[in-house]
Amino acid sequence: MDFLRDKLKQKLEEVTAGVEGLLHHDDNANTAANAQSQQAGDEEVPETSYPYQYGANRFGSFAPESSGDVKWYVDGASYFWAVSIALEQAKESIYILDWWLSPELYLRRPPAKNEQYRLDLMLRNAAERGVKVNIIVYKEVEQALTLNSQHTRKALEGLHKNIQVFRHPDHIPRGRDVLADLRSKMQMGTFSLAKLPQETLTALYGTKDDVTLFWAHHEKLCVVDRKLAFMGGLDMCFGRWDTNSHPIADAHPSNLDDIIFPGQDFNNARVYDFEDVANWENNKLDRTKSSRMGWSDISISLQGHIVDNLVDHFIDRWAFIWNEKYKEKDPGKYALISANAPQQEQSRDRGYGESRDRGYGDNPPYPEFETPFHLRQHARRFLGDDDDEGHDDRMRSSEHPRRGMKVQLVRSCSKWSAGHDTEASIAEAYIEIITNAKHFIYIENQFFITATSDAQKPVGNKIGRAIVDRIIRAHRAGEKFVIFVMMPAVPAFAGDLKSDGALGTRAIMEFQYFSINRGGNSIMECLLREGIENPADYIRFYNLRNYDRINTSAAMAQAEKDAGVSYEGARRDYDDKFERAIDDDRNQYESSRDPYESNRGGDGYGRGGYEDGRGYEGERGYGGERGYEGGRGYEGGRGGYERGYDDGRPERDEYHSGGYGDRYDGGRGDDQYGGRRQSGYGGGHRDEDYRQSSSRPGSRYEGGGYEGGSQGQGGRQHSQYERYQEAASKITDSTWDTISSCYMLNGPDLHSVPWNGSPESEINAFVCEELYIHSKVLIADDRVVICGSANLNDRSQMGDHDSEIAVIIQDKNRVESSMDGQPYRASAFAASLRRYLFRKHLGLLPDQRWDAANNNWTPVNQHAVNEYDWGSDADRLVEDPLADDFLALWYKTAKANTKIFRKVFHAVPDDTVRTWEDYDKFFSEKFVMPGTDAKLAEEGYKKGKVDYGHVVREEFPGGVEEVKEWLGRVRGTVVEMPLNFLIDVDDLAKEGLSFNELTSKLYT
After folding, report:
1. CA–CA gap between residue 38 and residue 84 (Å, rounded)
2. pLDDT tens per residue, range 729-777
3. Rounded Cα distance, 610 and 124, in Å
4. Which of 64, 293, 501, 681 is the 20 to 30 Å CA partner of 393?
């Protein structure tokens, strides 16, 4: 026994030093053969050790390299469906870290058929099963953000005692005179975060240890039963759920139960920001006039040893916040989480203890005398005593033996966020992977703010320098090397970029342009100085944009007339009924709780029992997320743009040999990805079976929701919802509720899509908006992936700003591929994700329905490998990211889409707009902006202006058919990023003197 004890002790010490041998069981049976066949670049990231406080771990991470299975999800529909499965099956514990969490979020759609999959109900049901639910959310500055984390805590804790919610950090304002002045500005409606002087800003955000708490907890993490984890770019909050097709219209005049985005989940922050989210059903955005803004994002699920590190991270954060805040503030209400067993709680009086440093300095994460869970597990595996059923390979769905993935957790954290010395391992990973990339880099990120040298202060992260150095190496060596960067067209949410309220947005844009091509030290300017005449040969930037058509056809007017109520009134009543149902449940639980369990500081859950955290009009401050605070394919003549735009009309000729033309015959994509054509909401045909199964007056919702008939919930007779539904049920409407399928693979010809109404009403129904990129992903060489919550800016990368997590994924399972025309062995995980993203952006995926769940919508513990149609026609088009044919396809599609949106919608930003005078002529003189005074709006309409986001009618003397001719040429959603937008304006942000102190903190 002494021998075994000594051996265990020795191996535990090796684990804490980051020895890889304890974490991986590589398949060594064919080591020699693999070594001979291994290509250069199989080990994409060198096994570099960093002399950091955490030992010899790569990138200076607190976590050593680990292993597991990882599965990707593109956009929210599939991801949230998978999360709902995991929550439904939870047995012991649920841990959630989120920047924003909306209790009323529906994880499956449409809500009318999926009431039981609303997040608060799922967490309540889990708690009633005995599951312990621990949640940490960012505590926002209420004057700057409308997240209302107080509502999140009260709404969830009010459901069951097994649900506990921490908010952090506390912003304790200081400076009585400064805050009095601030309150006065708010009352007068002149509050603008971007204009506050440094003293006021510091007083507003508060300080801790001489650090102004500008920063946010920005991680997105959900761990179920310590065996299954979800993470990436998606918070479980409003505005994130979306499909690959990104429909931005959601009016359903023939059946309100077809609504996909209830309440404030139908959001376009460029029109109206979220407001009073505690009353989530109240939405100022009129969906009969405005579109939502689509949301493009990427997340993953994980199982295996890597989950142990994520559990460590969460327990560490929970203990840190408990010790700092809740131990004294709410004694006895909350407890530490045991590192040993999910059901075992620690005494509320015990602190961290002092027995194990593991590089954490004075604040080790685990209670005294406990062996950290992942250390015990790794030691048991080494000694051959691993009986952990949660981490075996029995759940893998592949028929063939698979090699494990190498996965490592990296993060940004510091004293304020976690009680540890600063760790910036995410930035280290970005720089190292970019430096060692051999062929291409694909970056999809919400922001792009970086520096090439110290001359670009206040920006500090040097990812830009790594990009410049790698391109220079490729140029000097004569190598073909390409970097693709996808980012939002407008990084925050201002509609009119010239407005005073858009000052913060313009500041971010200026920092981004200074990172890319302006200011003297940008990436492209550095490359030009190195003799690279055309930097675009090596690096290009792109945005996403899409269009839709709101179903305001004659059926809506007829139903409104027959019912005697407006569509929007009935729609609001539809939303309100869901709110009443959960309120009843929550209030019933609150009334049954004893005083000890009741929430302190309020009178239970209710709209009047606490401050609603309402934000203020004007510029929003940045908390880490929503800006800085504040049967046809491509055939039959629907081809590419080889000849450009003669006579101002889009060409109808196909690409030469293998472009968009007859190569697309349906392939395997339609069935593979669930893109069904019988969609009442999403294109193709009306889905009568689906429509008839939806609830009607007199029927009962699944999950105990609204009961129809003469009296609805709350005792109200003949609600607006009921009256409208009864009238609508008698009307036949052939108009589609969305036409987002038209720019996807095998989508219908736009001319063939029916419209029940006048040509004038149809042209007014087309809408356009930027497709907001929120992803935080890097893919290099189809071999390695970084995926997590970290943006490409100082806030996420510096370590001592926002708290973040990400994982480095290296899949050892190879697929035969090609790179620059040569045979190439790619990672199955990286290659399938990258190809799927390229196909989505190019419109080479079929329309995706919101309820078309398949194996790719399940957690990794049910189907460990993403299903992908390797070798299909569409897949072969994007297989080789360096092939000339592919690059031509990508470049020309982006260029053509850009020209179309420029003409039809005058979308900004745009390259033809180089000055503010250009901006006025191109944009301001064409649109009536939301919130415009009624009299001024009417004057604008008389001058030919149209509502923001709609078709500029003066461009189309041929009417709606001409509009369709142009829009029918759009493929996917990719557009060129306008690098010349306002390039001749000296100071894009303006008001530089009052802005400098703020920008150095919040906006980079």
Report:
1. 40
2. 999 999 999 999 999 999 999 999 999 999 999 999 999 999 999 999 9
3. 22
4. 64
Q: Which two tokens stand for residue 498?
A: 């010239």
DSSP 472: H
Q: 599 and 154 in contact (C-beta within 8 Å)?
A: yes
Encoded tokens for 883: 């092939």
Two tokens, residue 801? 């700003």
Q: How far apart are CA 87 and CA 361, in angstroms?
A: 35
Rounded to the nearest 5°, which phi and psi values hold at 374? -70, -25
Could you tell me the two tokens for 336?
Answer: 């530490």
User: Above 60 in pLDDT, residue 89?
Assistant: yes
**In terms of Cα–Cα distance, which of 997, 989, 1001 is closest to 514?**
989
Q: What's the token pair of residue 277?
A: 């989210």
pLDDT band for 716, please (50, 70, 90 cuts). very low
- Residue 842 — φ and ψ, nearest 5°? -90, 0
Q: Which two tokens stand for residue 547?
A: 């269009």
Which two three-digit tokens encode residue 145?
Answer: 């953000």
Could you give the CA distance from residue 503 to residue 493 in angstroms, rounded to a whole number? 11
- Tell me, letter by letter, the H, E, C secondary structure of 173-195: CCCHHHHHHHHHHHHHCCCCHHH
pTM: 0.81
pLDDT for 491 equals 87
Q: Cβ of 86: how many Cβ atoms within 10 Å? A: 24
> How does DSSP classify residue 503?
H
Residue 86 contacts residue 224 (beta carbons within 8 Å): yes
Write out pLDDT tens, residues 907-939: 999 999 999 999 999 999 999 998 889 999 999
Q: Tokens 């250390």 correspond to what residue?
A: 375
Six-digit token string for 721: 């919802």
**Per-residue CA distances from 562 to 728, 734, 735, 863 (Å):** 8, 18, 19, 50
Q: How far apart are CA 509 and CA 577, in angstroms?
A: 41
8 A C-beta contact, residue 621 and residue 141: yes
Contact in structure between 377 and 305 (CB atoms under 8 Å) = yes
Asked whether the beta carbons of 68 and 302 are under 8 A apart, the reply is: yes
How many C-beta atoms lie closer than 10 Å to residue 287's C-beta? 23
Q: Residue 942: enclosing H or E segment and its boundaries?
A: helix 934-942
Strands (E), 278-416: 295-296, 298-303, 405-413
Nearest to 734, CA basis, from 554, 980, 548 = 554
Q: Which two tokens stand for residue 728?
A: 């609508």
SS3 97: strand
Q: Which residues of 17-33 are buried (b: 16+ CB within 10 A; e: fewer)?
A: ebbbebbeeeeeeeeee
